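Inputs:
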Amino acid sequence: MEALINRLEALLAENSIFTLQTLSYYGEGLSTTVQLVFISLLIGLVAAVPLAIGRGSKRRFIKWPIFAYTYVFRGTPLLIQLYLIYYGVVFVDGIQETWLWVLLKEPFVPALVAFTLNTAAYTTEIFHGAIKATPKGEIEAARAYGMSPALTLRRIVLPSAFRRALPAYGNEVIFMLHASAIASVVTIMDLTGAARFVYARFYAPFDAFLFVAAIYLCLTFAILYLFRYLEKKLLAHLQPMT
Amino acid sequence: MLDLHGYGPRLLEGAGVTITLALLALALAIVLGLITASAKMSRSWLAHRIATFYTTVIRGVPDLVLMMLLFFGGQIGVNVITDFLYYEFDIDIFININAFVAGVVTIGLIFGAYMGETFRGAFMAVDQGQVEAGKAYGMSDALVFRRIRFPLMMRHALPGLSNNWMVLLKTTALVSVIGLSDMVRVAAEASKATREPFVFMMTVAVIYLLIASVSEWIFARLQKRYNIGYGEAD
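Outputs:
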Protein backbone atom coordinates (compact mmCIF):
# COMPACT_ATOMS: atom_id res chain seq x y z
CA MET A 1 0.00 0.00 0.00
CA GLU A 2 2.82 2.39 0.97
CA ALA A 3 4.62 1.70 -2.27
CA LEU A 4 1.46 2.24 -4.24
CA ILE A 5 0.87 5.65 -2.69
CA ASN A 6 4.47 6.64 -3.41
CA ARG A 7 4.10 5.57 -7.02
CA LEU A 8 0.90 7.55 -7.30
CA GLU A 9 2.52 10.57 -5.74
CA ALA A 10 5.36 10.45 -8.21
CA LEU A 11 2.87 10.15 -11.04
CA LEU A 12 0.90 13.14 -9.81
CA ALA A 13 3.88 15.35 -9.02
CA GLU A 14 3.69 16.97 -12.45
CA ASN A 15 -0.04 17.56 -12.30
CA SER A 16 -1.39 20.68 -10.64
CA ILE A 17 -5.08 19.69 -10.68
CA PHE A 18 -5.16 15.99 -9.94
CA THR A 19 -3.25 16.00 -6.68
CA LEU A 20 -3.81 13.43 -3.98
CA GLN A 21 -6.02 16.02 -2.31
CA THR A 22 -8.45 16.38 -5.23
CA LEU A 23 -8.37 12.66 -5.90
CA SER A 24 -9.50 12.09 -2.34
CA TYR A 25 -12.48 14.40 -3.06
CA TYR A 26 -13.35 12.21 -6.02
CA GLY A 27 -12.88 9.13 -3.84
CA GLU A 28 -15.24 10.40 -1.18
CA GLY A 29 -17.65 11.48 -3.91
CA LEU A 30 -17.58 7.98 -5.37
CA SER A 31 -18.37 6.49 -1.99
CA THR A 32 -21.26 8.93 -1.44
CA THR A 33 -22.69 8.23 -4.90
CA VAL A 34 -22.46 4.47 -4.43
CA GLN A 35 -24.09 4.67 -1.00
CA LEU A 36 -26.92 6.89 -2.26
CA VAL A 37 -27.63 4.71 -5.28
CA PHE A 38 -27.25 1.38 -3.53
CA ILE A 39 -29.38 2.18 -0.47
CA SER A 40 -32.16 3.84 -2.46
CA LEU A 41 -32.22 0.96 -4.97
CA LEU A 42 -32.34 -1.61 -2.18
CA ILE A 43 -35.22 0.03 -0.29
CA GLY A 44 -36.97 0.82 -3.56
CA LEU A 45 -36.70 -2.80 -4.65
CA VAL A 46 -38.10 -4.15 -1.38
CA ALA A 47 -40.97 -1.64 -1.45
CA ALA A 48 -41.73 -2.26 -5.11
CA VAL A 49 -42.63 -5.95 -4.68
CA PRO A 50 -45.79 -5.48 -2.55
CA LEU A 51 -46.63 -2.31 -4.49
CA ALA A 52 -46.44 -4.17 -7.81
CA ILE A 53 -48.67 -6.94 -6.46
CA GLY A 54 -51.13 -4.34 -5.19
CA ARG A 55 -50.97 -2.47 -8.48
CA GLY A 56 -52.44 -5.53 -10.18
CA SER A 57 -55.07 -6.07 -7.53
CA LYS A 58 -58.74 -6.17 -8.48
CA ARG A 59 -59.70 -3.97 -5.55
CA ARG A 60 -59.91 -0.36 -6.64
CA PHE A 61 -58.95 1.16 -3.30
CA ILE A 62 -55.64 -0.71 -3.49
CA LYS A 63 -55.03 -0.35 -7.21
CA TRP A 64 -55.75 3.34 -7.73
CA PRO A 65 -53.60 4.91 -4.97
CA ILE A 66 -50.60 2.89 -6.17
CA PHE A 67 -51.28 3.89 -9.76
CA ALA A 68 -51.55 7.55 -8.73
CA TYR A 69 -48.24 7.27 -6.86
CA THR A 70 -46.35 5.76 -9.79
CA TYR A 71 -48.00 8.15 -12.26
CA VAL A 72 -46.97 11.24 -10.32
CA PHE A 73 -43.45 10.08 -9.51
CA ARG A 74 -42.78 8.88 -13.05
CA GLY A 75 -44.42 11.89 -14.64
CA THR A 76 -42.49 14.64 -12.85
CA PRO A 77 -38.74 15.37 -12.86
CA LEU A 78 -36.69 13.89 -10.04
CA LEU A 79 -35.25 17.35 -9.42
CA ILE A 80 -38.71 18.63 -8.42
CA GLN A 81 -39.22 15.69 -6.08
CA LEU A 82 -35.83 16.37 -4.52
CA TYR A 83 -36.56 20.09 -4.07
CA LEU A 84 -39.96 19.30 -2.64
CA ILE A 85 -38.53 17.00 0.00
CA TYR A 86 -35.32 18.94 0.66
CA TYR A 87 -36.91 22.39 0.99
CA GLY A 88 -40.35 21.21 2.01
CA VAL A 89 -39.40 19.16 5.02
CA VAL A 90 -38.17 22.24 6.89
CA PHE A 91 -41.66 23.66 6.91
CA VAL A 92 -43.41 20.69 8.46
CA ASP A 93 -44.68 22.04 11.77
CA GLY A 94 -42.64 21.05 14.78
CA ILE A 95 -40.29 18.75 12.89
CA GLN A 96 -37.28 20.71 14.06
CA GLU A 97 -38.00 19.66 17.64
CA THR A 98 -38.17 15.95 16.95
CA TRP A 99 -35.38 13.41 16.64
CA LEU A 100 -36.08 13.14 12.92
CA TRP A 101 -34.54 16.54 12.43
CA VAL A 102 -31.09 15.22 13.29
CA LEU A 103 -31.34 13.03 10.19
CA LEU A 104 -33.19 15.43 7.96
CA LYS A 105 -31.09 18.54 8.33
CA GLU A 106 -28.27 16.88 6.41
CA PRO A 107 -29.05 16.85 2.70
CA PHE A 108 -28.15 13.16 2.42
CA VAL A 109 -31.36 11.83 3.96
CA PRO A 110 -33.82 13.99 1.97
CA ALA A 111 -31.94 13.02 -1.20
CA LEU A 112 -32.12 9.37 -0.20
CA VAL A 113 -35.86 9.67 0.44
CA ALA A 114 -36.46 11.35 -2.93
CA PHE A 115 -34.37 8.78 -4.81
CA THR A 116 -36.02 5.88 -3.02
CA LEU A 117 -39.55 7.12 -3.76
CA ASN A 118 -38.58 7.70 -7.38
CA THR A 119 -36.96 4.33 -8.02
CA ALA A 120 -39.72 2.51 -6.13
CA ALA A 121 -42.26 4.03 -8.53
CA TYR A 122 -40.34 2.94 -11.63
CA THR A 123 -39.56 -0.50 -10.22
CA THR A 124 -43.22 -1.01 -9.30
CA GLU A 125 -44.22 -0.45 -12.91
CA ILE A 126 -41.45 -2.76 -14.17
CA PHE A 127 -42.56 -5.57 -11.83
CA HIS A 128 -46.20 -4.93 -12.57
CA GLY A 129 -45.55 -5.37 -16.26
CA ALA A 130 -43.56 -8.55 -15.61
CA ILE A 131 -46.26 -10.02 -13.36
CA LYS A 132 -48.93 -9.22 -15.93
CA ALA A 133 -46.94 -11.07 -18.57
CA THR A 134 -47.12 -14.37 -16.68
CA PRO A 135 -48.58 -17.00 -19.03
CA LYS A 136 -52.15 -17.80 -17.98
CA GLY A 137 -51.54 -21.52 -18.28
CA GLU A 138 -48.94 -21.47 -15.50
CA ILE A 139 -51.39 -19.90 -13.08
CA GLU A 140 -54.17 -22.27 -14.08
CA ALA A 141 -51.84 -25.22 -13.62
CA ALA A 142 -50.92 -24.01 -10.13
CA ARG A 143 -54.58 -23.59 -9.23
CA ALA A 144 -55.33 -27.04 -10.60
CA TYR A 145 -52.71 -28.40 -8.21
CA GLY A 146 -54.68 -26.81 -5.41
CA MET A 147 -52.28 -24.00 -4.60
CA SER A 148 -53.79 -21.01 -2.85
CA PRO A 149 -53.48 -17.61 -4.59
CA ALA A 150 -50.71 -16.62 -2.13
CA LEU A 151 -48.79 -19.83 -2.78
CA THR A 152 -49.25 -19.42 -6.53
CA LEU A 153 -47.83 -15.92 -6.26
CA ARG A 154 -44.84 -17.05 -4.21
CA ARG A 155 -43.97 -20.20 -6.12
CA ILE A 156 -45.08 -19.52 -9.68
CA VAL A 157 -45.72 -15.89 -10.51
CA LEU A 158 -43.00 -13.99 -8.67
CA PRO A 159 -39.96 -16.15 -9.52
CA SER A 160 -40.61 -15.99 -13.23
CA ALA A 161 -41.70 -12.34 -13.08
CA PHE A 162 -38.42 -11.32 -11.42
CA ARG A 163 -36.51 -13.03 -14.19
CA ARG A 164 -38.56 -11.34 -16.87
CA ALA A 165 -38.04 -7.99 -15.15
CA LEU A 166 -34.25 -8.35 -15.02
CA PRO A 167 -33.31 -6.52 -18.25
CA ALA A 168 -35.63 -3.60 -17.53
CA TYR A 169 -34.41 -3.46 -13.94
CA GLY A 170 -30.82 -3.27 -15.14
CA ASN A 171 -31.76 -0.16 -17.10
CA GLU A 172 -33.39 1.27 -14.00
CA VAL A 173 -30.18 0.74 -12.00
CA ILE A 174 -28.15 2.62 -14.61
CA PHE A 175 -30.83 5.31 -14.75
CA MET A 176 -30.59 5.72 -10.97
CA LEU A 177 -26.79 5.99 -11.11
CA HIS A 178 -27.11 8.80 -13.62
CA ALA A 179 -29.97 10.46 -11.79
CA SER A 180 -27.93 10.51 -8.59
CA ALA A 181 -25.80 13.29 -10.13
CA ILE A 182 -28.69 15.58 -9.16
CA ALA A 183 -27.71 15.14 -5.51
CA SER A 184 -24.90 17.64 -6.10
CA VAL A 185 -27.56 20.33 -6.56
CA VAL A 186 -28.51 20.16 -2.89
CA THR A 187 -24.86 20.53 -1.81
CA ILE A 188 -24.12 16.82 -1.45
CA MET A 189 -20.49 16.05 -2.30
CA ASP A 190 -21.17 13.08 -4.53
CA LEU A 191 -19.07 12.39 -7.63
CA THR A 192 -20.62 15.27 -9.55
CA GLY A 193 -20.34 17.47 -6.46
CA ALA A 194 -16.62 16.72 -6.29
CA ALA A 195 -16.27 17.56 -9.98
CA ARG A 196 -18.08 20.86 -9.49
CA PHE A 197 -15.81 21.67 -6.57
CA VAL A 198 -12.65 20.90 -8.55
CA TYR A 199 -14.00 22.92 -11.48
CA ALA A 200 -14.73 25.93 -9.27
CA ARG A 201 -11.35 25.73 -7.57
CA PHE A 202 -9.16 25.42 -10.67
CA TYR A 203 -11.50 26.73 -13.38
CA ALA A 204 -10.69 23.61 -15.37
CA PRO A 205 -14.02 22.29 -16.69
CA PHE A 206 -12.54 19.71 -19.05
CA ASP A 207 -10.27 18.11 -16.47
CA ALA A 208 -12.91 18.13 -13.75
CA PHE A 209 -15.90 16.90 -15.74
CA LEU A 210 -14.22 14.59 -18.23
CA PHE A 211 -12.56 12.74 -15.38
CA VAL A 212 -15.86 12.29 -13.55
CA ALA A 213 -17.57 11.31 -16.81
CA ALA A 214 -14.98 8.54 -17.20
CA ILE A 215 -15.71 7.28 -13.68
CA TYR A 216 -19.45 7.21 -14.40
CA LEU A 217 -18.78 5.41 -17.66
CA CYS A 218 -16.80 2.73 -15.81
CA LEU A 219 -19.57 2.34 -13.22
CA THR A 220 -22.15 2.07 -15.99
CA PHE A 221 -20.18 -0.65 -17.72
CA ALA A 222 -19.71 -2.52 -14.44
CA ILE A 223 -23.49 -2.51 -13.88
CA LEU A 224 -24.10 -3.48 -17.50
CA TYR A 225 -21.79 -6.49 -17.27
CA LEU A 226 -23.18 -7.53 -13.89
CA PHE A 227 -26.70 -7.62 -15.33
CA ARG A 228 -25.54 -9.32 -18.49
CA TYR A 229 -23.99 -12.01 -16.29
CA LEU A 230 -27.16 -12.31 -14.20
CA GLU A 231 -29.28 -12.55 -17.32
CA LYS A 232 -27.08 -15.29 -18.68
CA LYS A 233 -27.41 -17.22 -15.41
CA LEU A 234 -31.06 -16.61 -14.62
CA LEU A 235 -32.49 -16.43 -18.10
CA ALA A 236 -30.50 -19.40 -19.42
CA HIS A 237 -33.74 -21.16 -20.36
CA LEU A 238 -34.61 -18.32 -22.75
CA GLN A 239 -31.28 -18.26 -24.58
CA PRO A 240 -31.40 -19.43 -28.17
CA MET A 241 -29.96 -22.91 -28.59
CA THR A 242 -26.59 -22.97 -30.24
CA MET B 1 -57.14 28.72 -3.02
CA LEU B 2 -53.83 28.60 -4.80
CA ASP B 3 -51.84 31.70 -3.90
CA LEU B 4 -48.76 32.15 -6.08
CA HIS B 5 -47.71 35.45 -4.48
CA GLY B 6 -47.57 37.19 -7.85
CA TYR B 7 -45.20 34.59 -9.29
CA GLY B 8 -47.89 33.27 -11.66
CA PRO B 9 -46.78 35.17 -14.80
CA ARG B 10 -43.12 34.30 -14.23
CA LEU B 11 -44.01 30.65 -13.75
CA LEU B 12 -45.90 30.72 -17.04
CA GLU B 13 -42.90 32.33 -18.72
CA GLY B 14 -40.76 29.58 -17.23
CA ALA B 15 -43.15 26.99 -18.59
CA GLY B 16 -42.74 28.65 -22.00
CA VAL B 17 -38.95 28.33 -21.69
CA THR B 18 -39.29 24.68 -20.71
CA ILE B 19 -41.55 23.85 -23.66
CA THR B 20 -39.47 25.81 -26.21
CA LEU B 21 -36.30 24.18 -24.96
CA ALA B 22 -37.83 20.73 -25.01
CA LEU B 23 -39.18 21.14 -28.56
CA LEU B 24 -35.89 22.53 -29.95
CA ALA B 25 -33.95 19.76 -28.22
CA LEU B 26 -36.40 17.21 -29.65
CA ALA B 27 -35.86 18.56 -33.17
CA LEU B 28 -32.08 18.35 -32.73
CA ALA B 29 -32.38 14.87 -31.21
CA ILE B 30 -34.48 13.60 -34.14
CA VAL B 31 -31.97 14.94 -36.68
CA LEU B 32 -29.03 13.48 -34.76
CA GLY B 33 -30.95 10.24 -34.25
CA LEU B 34 -31.62 9.86 -37.98
CA ILE B 35 -27.95 10.52 -38.75
CA THR B 36 -26.81 8.06 -36.07
CA ALA B 37 -29.23 5.41 -37.26
CA SER B 38 -28.03 5.77 -40.86
CA ALA B 39 -24.40 5.68 -39.70
CA LYS B 40 -25.02 2.52 -37.70
CA MET B 41 -26.67 0.82 -40.65
CA SER B 42 -24.13 2.05 -43.19
CA ARG B 43 -21.50 -0.21 -44.66
CA SER B 44 -18.77 2.26 -43.78
CA TRP B 45 -16.64 0.89 -40.94
CA LEU B 46 -15.67 4.36 -39.74
CA ALA B 47 -19.22 5.73 -39.62
CA HIS B 48 -20.35 2.66 -37.72
CA ARG B 49 -17.53 3.03 -35.20
CA ILE B 50 -18.15 6.75 -34.64
CA ALA B 51 -21.89 6.23 -34.15
CA THR B 52 -21.30 3.37 -31.70
CA PHE B 53 -18.80 5.46 -29.74
CA TYR B 54 -21.25 8.36 -29.61
CA THR B 55 -24.21 6.32 -28.37
CA THR B 56 -22.11 4.37 -25.84
CA VAL B 57 -20.43 7.37 -24.27
CA ILE B 58 -23.53 9.55 -24.16
CA ARG B 59 -25.65 6.81 -22.60
CA GLY B 60 -22.97 6.02 -20.04
CA VAL B 61 -22.59 9.48 -18.54
CA PRO B 62 -25.16 11.39 -16.45
CA ASP B 63 -26.98 14.19 -18.30
CA LEU B 64 -26.07 16.72 -15.62
CA VAL B 65 -22.34 16.04 -16.03
CA LEU B 66 -22.60 16.37 -19.81
CA MET B 67 -24.57 19.58 -19.43
CA MET B 68 -21.99 21.11 -17.11
CA LEU B 69 -19.15 19.96 -19.32
CA LEU B 70 -20.77 21.67 -22.28
CA PHE B 71 -21.88 24.78 -20.44
CA PHE B 72 -18.70 25.45 -18.47
CA GLY B 73 -16.27 23.90 -20.93
CA GLY B 74 -18.05 24.90 -24.14
CA GLN B 75 -17.31 28.59 -23.74
CA ILE B 76 -13.60 27.93 -23.20
CA GLY B 77 -13.54 25.63 -26.21
CA VAL B 78 -15.33 28.18 -28.40
CA ASN B 79 -13.02 30.95 -27.18
CA VAL B 80 -9.96 28.94 -28.13
CA ILE B 81 -11.34 28.51 -31.65
CA THR B 82 -12.39 32.14 -32.09
CA ASP B 83 -9.05 33.36 -30.70
CA PHE B 84 -7.28 31.17 -33.18
CA LEU B 85 -9.42 32.55 -36.02
CA TYR B 86 -8.73 36.11 -34.88
CA TYR B 87 -4.96 35.82 -34.56
CA GLU B 88 -4.38 33.65 -37.58
CA PHE B 89 -6.94 34.88 -40.07
CA ASP B 90 -8.07 38.18 -38.57
CA ILE B 91 -11.67 36.96 -38.45
CA ASP B 92 -13.35 38.64 -35.53
CA ILE B 93 -16.35 36.72 -34.30
CA PHE B 94 -17.76 36.34 -30.84
CA ILE B 95 -19.89 33.36 -29.90
CA ASN B 96 -21.50 33.38 -26.52
CA ILE B 97 -22.67 30.04 -25.14
CA ASN B 98 -25.59 30.88 -22.96
CA ALA B 99 -27.49 28.50 -20.76
CA PHE B 100 -30.30 28.11 -23.29
CA VAL B 101 -28.02 27.09 -26.16
CA ALA B 102 -26.03 24.78 -23.87
CA GLY B 103 -29.28 23.24 -22.66
CA VAL B 104 -30.70 22.64 -26.14
CA VAL B 105 -27.41 21.27 -27.46
CA THR B 106 -26.76 18.95 -24.51
CA ILE B 107 -30.28 17.57 -24.31
CA GLY B 108 -30.36 17.23 -28.09
CA LEU B 109 -27.02 15.39 -28.03
CA ILE B 110 -28.12 13.05 -25.25
CA PHE B 111 -31.44 12.13 -26.77
CA GLY B 112 -29.94 11.95 -30.26
CA ALA B 113 -28.17 8.84 -28.97
CA TYR B 114 -31.40 7.33 -27.65
CA MET B 115 -33.31 8.30 -30.82
CA GLY B 116 -30.56 6.68 -32.87
CA GLU B 117 -31.31 3.33 -31.25
CA THR B 118 -35.06 3.82 -31.66
CA PHE B 119 -34.77 4.76 -35.33
CA ARG B 120 -32.31 1.98 -36.11
CA GLY B 121 -34.72 -0.64 -34.84
CA ALA B 122 -37.60 0.99 -36.71
CA PHE B 123 -35.72 1.25 -40.02
CA MET B 124 -34.80 -2.41 -39.81
CA ALA B 125 -38.46 -3.28 -39.33
CA VAL B 126 -39.41 -1.65 -42.64
CA ASP B 127 -40.39 -4.18 -45.27
CA GLN B 128 -37.50 -4.28 -47.73
CA GLY B 129 -39.85 -5.16 -50.57
CA GLN B 130 -41.51 -1.76 -50.33
CA VAL B 131 -38.15 -0.01 -50.66
CA GLU B 132 -37.33 -2.14 -53.68
CA ALA B 133 -40.71 -1.39 -55.18
CA GLY B 134 -40.02 2.33 -54.78
CA LYS B 135 -36.67 1.95 -56.51
CA ALA B 136 -38.27 -0.06 -59.28
CA TYR B 137 -40.59 2.89 -59.89
CA GLY B 138 -37.48 4.96 -60.55
CA MET B 139 -37.56 6.99 -57.34
CA SER B 140 -34.26 8.49 -56.24
CA ASP B 141 -32.81 7.47 -52.85
CA ALA B 142 -33.99 10.73 -51.31
CA LEU B 143 -37.50 10.25 -52.63
CA VAL B 144 -37.60 6.64 -51.44
CA PHE B 145 -36.57 7.89 -48.00
CA ARG B 146 -39.19 10.65 -47.91
CA ARG B 147 -42.11 8.74 -49.41
CA ILE B 148 -41.54 5.17 -48.29
CA ARG B 149 -38.89 4.50 -45.67
CA PHE B 150 -39.63 7.44 -43.38
CA PRO B 151 -43.42 7.06 -43.11
CA LEU B 152 -43.16 3.29 -42.72
CA MET B 153 -40.38 3.64 -40.17
CA MET B 154 -42.37 6.14 -38.10
CA ARG B 155 -45.02 3.54 -37.38
CA HIS B 156 -42.44 1.41 -35.58
CA ALA B 157 -40.54 4.34 -34.09
CA LEU B 158 -43.47 6.20 -32.53
CA PRO B 159 -43.76 4.22 -29.27
CA GLY B 160 -40.03 4.63 -28.62
CA LEU B 161 -40.15 8.25 -29.74
CA SER B 162 -42.97 8.99 -27.34
CA ASN B 163 -41.03 7.35 -24.51
CA ASN B 164 -37.91 9.37 -25.31
CA TRP B 165 -39.93 12.57 -25.43
CA MET B 166 -41.36 11.96 -21.96
CA VAL B 167 -37.88 11.42 -20.53
CA LEU B 168 -36.55 14.42 -22.46
CA LEU B 169 -39.28 16.62 -21.05
CA LYS B 170 -38.28 15.71 -17.51
CA THR B 171 -34.60 16.17 -18.30
CA THR B 172 -35.21 19.82 -19.16
CA ALA B 173 -35.60 20.44 -15.42
CA LEU B 174 -31.81 20.12 -15.19
CA VAL B 175 -31.20 23.35 -17.11
CA SER B 176 -32.32 25.21 -14.00
CA VAL B 177 -29.05 24.04 -12.44
CA ILE B 178 -26.92 25.83 -15.04
CA GLY B 179 -28.84 29.05 -14.52
CA LEU B 180 -31.62 29.08 -17.10
CA SER B 181 -34.91 30.53 -15.88
CA ASP B 182 -37.13 27.60 -16.69
CA MET B 183 -40.13 26.89 -14.52
CA VAL B 184 -38.16 24.78 -12.05
CA ARG B 185 -35.77 27.63 -11.35
CA VAL B 186 -38.60 30.15 -11.02
CA ALA B 187 -40.33 27.78 -8.60
CA ALA B 188 -37.13 27.27 -6.60
CA GLU B 189 -36.58 31.03 -6.34
CA ALA B 190 -40.20 31.62 -5.39
CA SER B 191 -40.01 28.84 -2.78
CA LYS B 192 -37.04 30.49 -1.11
CA ALA B 193 -38.53 33.98 -1.24
CA THR B 194 -41.98 33.06 0.05
CA ARG B 195 -40.94 30.06 2.15
CA GLU B 196 -43.72 28.00 0.60
CA PRO B 197 -41.96 25.25 -1.37
CA PHE B 198 -44.99 22.96 -1.41
CA VAL B 199 -47.16 25.42 -3.33
CA PHE B 200 -44.63 26.15 -6.06
CA MET B 201 -43.14 22.69 -6.49
CA MET B 202 -46.60 21.13 -6.64
CA THR B 203 -47.70 23.69 -9.24
CA VAL B 204 -44.69 22.91 -11.40
CA ALA B 205 -45.26 19.17 -10.94
CA VAL B 206 -48.85 19.60 -12.13
CA ILE B 207 -47.69 21.60 -15.18
CA TYR B 208 -45.26 18.79 -16.06
CA LEU B 209 -48.04 16.22 -15.72
CA LEU B 210 -50.28 18.40 -17.91
CA ILE B 211 -47.66 18.69 -20.65
CA ALA B 212 -47.09 14.93 -20.44
CA SER B 213 -50.83 14.23 -20.75
CA VAL B 214 -51.21 16.55 -23.75
CA SER B 215 -48.20 14.91 -25.43
CA GLU B 216 -49.66 11.50 -24.78
CA TRP B 217 -52.83 12.57 -26.58
CA ILE B 218 -50.84 13.98 -29.52
CA PHE B 219 -48.80 10.79 -29.80
CA ALA B 220 -51.96 8.69 -29.74
CA ARG B 221 -53.24 10.77 -32.69
CA LEU B 222 -49.94 10.38 -34.55
CA GLN B 223 -49.92 6.66 -33.89
CA LYS B 224 -53.37 6.42 -35.41
CA ARG B 225 -52.25 8.38 -38.46
CA TYR B 226 -49.14 6.28 -39.11
CA ASN B 227 -51.11 3.10 -38.51
CA ILE B 228 -53.52 3.84 -41.33
CA GLY B 229 -53.79 0.76 -43.50
CA TYR B 230 -52.65 -1.59 -40.78
CA GLY B 231 -55.84 -1.84 -38.76
CA GLU B 232 -55.97 -2.55 -35.07
CA ALA B 233 -55.30 -6.24 -35.20
CA ASP B 234 -53.44 -6.44 -31.91
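Remarks. The first helix of chain A runs from residue 2 to 12. The CA atoms of residues 70 and 121 of chain A lie 5 Å apart.
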